[in-house]
Design a protein that fits this description.
Elements (H helix, E strand, L loop, with lengths): L6 H19 L6 H16 L1 H6 L18 H19 L15 H22 L3 H10 L3 H25 L1
Helix pairs in contact: 2-4, 6-7
Length: 170
């Protein structure tokens, strides 16, 4: 197995990707918008494009009334992230089906905790009007006051919850 990437070089790389995203696509980075676009496309397929476009919850994710999530930049971004993660794990010899968990956790508990955490993050992304990556990377780079409040709050919450999570890993 190869070592993990240097975090400072990875940070510079993410900054370069963010700059390239703004320069080439005219948009920042994020993830939750891609899931919303896919959900909107599935809704349009289920109830019809005109009905879906009439919904204020779905309409923003159906550009020009088209129900194809492949027209959304963020969907392509996430597909690229998945492909890049796979390629990175494969080239580093870390590609394996494993449950990363502490000695006190069962695979079921780990999956339940991961699912619950994902649901809470998804709800939080909806309330915050953007996911962690969109708020912290894109909003932070644009010096958005709300994004910087989010970053500070997210770090404070993580610091406060770390002792609880750490118990499961020891």
């Amino acid at each position: 197995m190869t070592r993990y990437a240097d975090p400072y070089l990875a940070g510079i790389g993410i900054g370069g990707v963010l700059l390239a995203a703004y320069a080439l696509a005219g948009q920042g980075l994020g993830a939750s918008g891609a899931f919303a676009s896919v959900a909107a496309a599935l809704t349009a397929a289920a109830v019809g494009t005109s009905k879906a476009a009439a919904s204020p919850a779905v309409a923003p994710y159906l550009p020009e009334g088209l129900a194809s999530p492949l027209r959304d930049w963020l969907v392509w971004e996430l597909l690229g992230v998945a492909a890049g993660a796979f390629a990175s794990a494969w080239s580093a010899g870390r590609l394996a089906w494993v449950f990363e968990r502490g000695p006190r956790q069962t695979p079921g508990l780990r999956l339940t905790a991961a699912l619950a955490g994902g649901i809470v993050m998804g709800i939080g992304a909806k309330f915050a009007r953007g996911c962690t990556s969109g708020q912290a990377l894109s909003g932070g780079a644009l010096l958005s006051v709300g994004s910087w409040i989010f970053i500070v709050t997210a770090f404070a919450a993580a610091y406060a919850c770390a002792p609880l999570a750490r118990r499961l890993w020891l």
